[in-house]
Automatic annotation (TrEMBL):
Annotated protein name in UniProt: DegT/DnrJ/EryC1/StrS family aminotransferase
Molecular function in Gene Ontology: transaminase activity
Gene3D superfamilies in UniProt: Type I PLP-dependent aspartate aminotransferase-like (Major domain) (3.40.640.10)
Pfam family, one: DegT_DnrJ_EryC1
PANTHER family: PROTEIN RV3402C, TRANSAMINASE
InterPro entries: DegT/StrS_aminotransferase, PyrdxlP-dep_Trfase, PyrdxlP-dep_Trfase_major
CDD domains with a match to the protein in the record: AHBA_syn
Organism: Niastella soli
Keywords of the record: Aminotransferase, Pyridoxal phosphate, Transferase
Family statement: Belongs to the DegT/DnrJ/EryC1 family.
């Protein structure tokens, strides 16, 4: 069986050697030494000032909205995982969907201003597949209209724009460290900001708003464990090697699919991506479905990622015009891509893709 992704696991002895530090002290949660060590190493790796390692990539989005005082309208993308929209709704805000750029699949920054109203408070955009949003244009719009900017960087760990981590842009950036991600801690995520006052809020939000018997603010339980932090510390040592291997596999796909009638998202020269996914876009949904069936019949399981366009979810009551997102979401398919995917497996996948068209 070949799945769309496969979790990278470090050598078991490496993981347990790190975990033993916490095991010997019987300190396995509540911001232990391994968690603090991971936070420091992640800050150094990303060159950011404030980073909080938390228990998943959805809670950090909720914390971001709460910390920035967002209660009304949030301009967002319809082409993302459902957590992006659910977070806005969960926090009692209204998502306002703006269509995507048909080349990058990120929110179309040139369509944002037309969606701004007197109730707009923030822009929450996703760096899709680790490809950057137009961060400069979005920042200029935010400054002009006094809006906050949050980036859902669930796919963006290791991606850079003009030599800077994608997670260093916006008022707040978040990331997912779920087991399906290029860098993972089994379950986990982080929140990054650049302001000391905002960072203090996040510190308390993560731990019920108190230290010992002293209470400072409202808070939730977004802490992560030493077991998860140990996995992060072990995987971080392998991260550069993982990305290089995924790049080699993606480039092999590129070579094999030359002339194949599918489109790919555009990556400009000033961007370094992390090869988190390998999406292809068919001309029609019918062709996608036919190809997917053939692959599945050979125990190969790609993913329609992202599908459907989030503005079409049954619990979204307002209507939005997002023709690019709705069209691409029906036609996009992520092919298997992971660290130790064999060339022979890629050859089989490509062979079946060509067969699906010949039929």
């Amino acid at each position: 069986m070949i799945n769309v992704t496969k979790t990278f696991l470090p050598p078991f002895e490496e993981y347990t050697a790190i975990l033993k530090k916490a095991w010997d002290k019987a300190w396995i949660t509540n911001n232990g030494e391994l968690l603090l060590e991971l936070e420091k190493k992640l800050k150094d790796y990303l060159s950011v000032d404030y980073l909080f390692y938390c228990n998943n990539g959805t809670l950090v989005l909720q914390m971001a909205l709460k910390a920035l005082g967002i209660t009304k309208e949030v301009i967002t993308t319809p082409f993302s995982y459902v957590a992006t929209t659910n977070t806005i709704l969960w926090e009692g805000c209204k998502p306002v969907f703006v269509d995507i750029d048909p080349h990058t699949f990120c929110i179309d920054a040139y369509k944002i201003e037309a969606a701004i109203t007197e109730n707009t408070q923030a822009i929450l955009a996703t760096h899709v597949y680790g490809i950057p949003c137009d961060v400069e244009k979005i920042q200029a719009i935010a400054e002009k209209h006094n809006l906050k900017v949050i980036y859902d960087g669930a796919h963006a760990f290791g991606s850079q724009y003009k030599g800077k981590s994608l997670l260093s842009f916006g008022d707040i950036s978040t990331c997912s460290f779920h087991a399906t991600k290029v860098f993972h801690t089994v379950e986990g995520g982080c929140l990054i900001c650049h302001d000391a006052e905002l960072a203090e809020k996040m510190y308390f939000y993560r731990s019920f708003g108190h230290i010992g018997d002293d209470y400072y603010s409202v808070g939730i339980n977004a802490k992560n464990s030493e077991f998860h932090a140990a996995m992060g510390l072990a995987n971080l040592q392998h991260f550069n090697k993982i990305v290089l291997q995924r790049k080699a596999i993606a480039e092999y796909y590129d070579e094999c699919l030359k002339g194949f009638p599918v489109a790919r998202p555009k990556v400009t020269e000033d961007v370094t991506i992390n090869y988190s996914y390998y999406p292809i876009v068919f001309d029609t949904e019918e062709q996608l479905l036919k190809t997917t069936t053939i692959l599945k019949n050979h125990s190969i399981f790609p993913r329609r990622y992202f599908y459907p366009s989030l503005n079409t979810l049954p619990f979204i009551t307002s209507k939005y015009s997002t023709p690019n997102s709705e069209s691409i979401s029906r036609r996009v398919l992520c092919l298997p891509l992971y660290y130790d995917l064999a060339k022979s497996d890629v050859d089989l996948i490509v062979e079946l893709l060509f067969k699906s068209f010949n039929k």
